[in-house]
Design a protein that fits this description.
159 residues; alpha+beta; Quinone Oxidoreductase, Chain A, domain 1; five-stranded antiparallel beta sheet; two-stranded antiparallel sheet; 4 helices
Length: 159
C-alpha cells in the first residue's frame, strides 16, 4: 500500500483489454460519502467480463477502476457524515440505488428507477488503495473482523 505522501494507486481499465496502474491523489469524500482504505478486493467473473468487453455497455463506463467485492477501513468522512465512522472496518453495497424513487422507498432497491450506478462498473471501484462510497451504503464490521475474509461478503450475499 502507498504512504500518505505517495498518493493512491489504482488499476484503470481504459477500454476492453487495456489497463494500466496509475498513481493519483487520494480522493476526497464528497458530501454524504466516506473515504475507505481498501484492505482486500476480490476478482469476479463480472470483472473479467468488464475487462474483456463482454459486459453489456449499459452497465459499464470506461475508463473505470474495477472492484466491487472488497473490505476496508474508513479513513475520512465528507460533509454530513458522522465522524465516528473514521477507523471503522466496513464493506458497502455496490449498487448505488437512488434511495428516493418509488421502488427504493418500497425497499426494492434492485429495481431503482433513478438510473444505474455501481461501484467498480460505472463508479471507481476497489482495485485501488482508496475508494469513496456513499456512507448510506456501508455495512460496518466488528472491530476484530478479518478484512480479507470480509471481502467475500458481497459474493456470499448475492448467492
Amino acid at each position: 500500500m502507498s504512504g500518505p505522501d505517495e498518493g493512491s494507486r489504482a488499476v484503470v481499465v481504459e477500454r476492453p483489454g487495456q489497463h494500466r496502474l496509475v498513481r493519483r491523489d487520494v480522493p476526497a469524500p464528497g458530501p454524504g460519502e466516506v473515504l475507505v482504505r481498501v484492505a482486500a478486493a476480490g476478482i469476479c467473473m463480472s470483472d473479467r467480463e468488464l475487462y474483456d468487453g463482454r459486459r453489456d455497455a449499459a452497465y459499464v463506463r470506461y475508463p473505470v477502476t474495477p472492484g466491487h467485492e472488497w473490505a476496508g477501513t474508513v479513513e475520512a468522512v465528507g460533509a454530513g457524515v458522522d465522524a465516528a465512522l473514521v477507523g471503522r472496518k466496513t464493506v458497502a453495497e455496490g449498487f448505488r440505488a437512488c434511495g428516493t424513487c418509488e421502488r427504493c422507498r418500497c425497499g426494492e432497491t434492485s429495481l431503482c428507477t433513478g438510473g444505474y450506478a455501481e461501484t467498480g462498473f460505472t463508479e471507481p471501484g476497489a482495485f485501488a488503495d482508496h475508494l469513496t462510497v456513499p456512507a448510506r451504503l456501508l455495512h460496518l464490521l466488528a472491530d476484530d473482523a478479518e478484512l480479507r475474509a470480509a471481502a467475500l461478503l458481497e459474493p456470499a450475499a448475492v448467492v
